[in-house]
Amino acid sequence: MKRKKSKGETKQARTAQAEARSTARGKDTRKARVVARAELPTRYGAFAILGFERPSEARALRISADGDGSDGAVALVHGKIRAGDAPLVRIHSQCLTGDVFHSLRCDCRAQLEMALRETARARCGIVLYLPQEGRGIGLMNKLKAYELQDRGMDTVEANRELGFEADHRDYEFCADALKLLGVKRVRLLSNNPDKVAQLERAGIRVVERVPCRPRTSRHSREYLKVKRKKMGHLD
Fold first, then answer.
1. pLDDT value at position 119?
2. Sheet containing 205-210: order of strands
3. Which residues of the chain have pLDDT under 70?
4. CB neighbour class for 83 (10 Å; exposed up to 12, middle 13-18, buried from 19)
5. Is residue 117 classed exposed, middle or buried when 0-12, 13-18 and 19+ CB atoms within 10 A define those classes?
6. Are 136 and 68 in contact (CB under 8 A)?
7. Cα-flanking dihedrals φ and ψ of residue 127, to 5°?
8. Between 56-66 and 7-27, two packed helices, what is the crossing angle to 10 degrees?
9. What is the pTM of this model?
């Protein structure tokens, strides 16, 4: 039977992960490069889909620091982006349970559908899709967090019990991808003030925060309440 970590061990693990991320960020320039581009017709509208990767050294550092294997991003681009434009942008972190399996524990699929719909309606827009499952802790750890939530913890408490931050995500690479697309100003579809702050620090000006308020179910109400109360998410 697997031994439960003590609070001291959990704190040590959290400190070690923070140090690994700090080291990786000091060495990793996060420069993006486009590795593929294709047309992607969807039920929401026509998009171009682009694949972005980090340099190989940066990918190795990222995987070592976070253990989630995230090494790039996908961008869905609608319309023509001209110099000086501030396109509608949604940065969406992968959620297998929500995006694919239609889980009602979170609002991820509803947010993704709203993002695709609103981006397709705009003159130009971008949906950046990141492999940052479970707010950056990876799929297996996310499932472990679900197990703890079923025992009474909330999403923040579960992450911390596993030795992670409440939100483990990093948006610097997104900023590099946006710059590669010629974007320096955005209208950001988000409720997350940390996402705004990270983009601003990385040189992307957020000229407007557009609230992301899709319809949600009763199953996700407590989850959304915790995001507002403990993580500072806005309405």
1. 96
2. 33-41, 46-53, 72-78, 125-130, 88-93, 185-189, 205-210
3. 1-30, 56-71, 220, 223-224, 226, 230-232, 234-235
4. exposed
5. middle
6. yes
7. -110, 115
8. 170
9. 0.79
d(CA 128, CA 192): 15
Per the DSSP assignment, residues forming a β-bridge with 148 are none
What pLDDT is stored for residue 55 in this prediction?
A: 73
Structure tokens belonging to residue 140: 């297996």
In this structure, are residues 115 and 145 in contact, taking their beta carbons and an 8 Å threshold?
no
Q: Which residues are catalytic?
A: 167, 169
- How many angstroms separate the CA atoms of 214 and 145, rounded? 24
- Rounded-to-integer distance, Cα 116 and Cα 131, Å: 17
Cα torsion for 185, 85, 44, 71, to the nearest 10°?
-40
Contacts of 15 (CB under 8 A, 6+ apart): none
Question: Cα(210)–Cα(89) distance, rounded to whole angstroms?
Answer: 9
Helix axes 193-201, 172-180, angle to 10 degrees: 60
Q: What is the pLDDT of residues 133-173, one digit of tens each?
A: 998 899 999 999 999 999 999 989 999 999 998 888 889 99
Provide the token pair at 196.
Answer: 């705004």
Residue found under tokens 């911390």: 160
